[in-house]
Amino acid sequence: MYITAELAIHSYEMNPTLQITTSKLNGNNFMEWSQSAQIFVKYKSKMKYILGTSPQSSGDGPKYENWKVESSKVMSYLLHSMQLEISKTYLLLTIAKEIWEGVTLSYSKRGITDRLYDLKK
């Protein structure tokens, strides 16, 4: 039995704990992880939740509820694409943009610095 790409992507809607990246963020692979995560999030048309460009409605009403659900999906995608010890750090954040910014701040320069150090050895 063959699983089509469409069916595989649809399964993420049903089970957001599935891994969306080729490898989980481990602290040293930010560049690869971020590119892989962005490909998936772009495919799902959810980049606006990472970039913070999706208008956040006020705290009431169906538009706000929909915004919360969609942001939570992206949060789940991101958290489940990280090693457990890393994801625990971001678990209490409330929107996808905060997770993305926190991970970028913590790991983007670290990976580059580690690579430069390895090159100097």
TrEMBL record:
<protein>
    <recommendedName>
        <fullName>Retrotransposon Copia-like N-terminal domain-containing protein</fullName>
    </recommendedName>
</protein>
<dbReference type="Pfam" id="PF14244">
    <property type="entry name" value="Retrotran_gag_3"/>
</dbReference>
<feature type="domain" description="Retrotransposon Copia-like N-terminal">
    <location>
        <begin position="15"/>
        <end position="53"/>
    </location>
</feature>
<dbReference type="InterPro" id="IPR029472">
    <property type="entry name" value="Copia-like_N"/>
</dbReference>
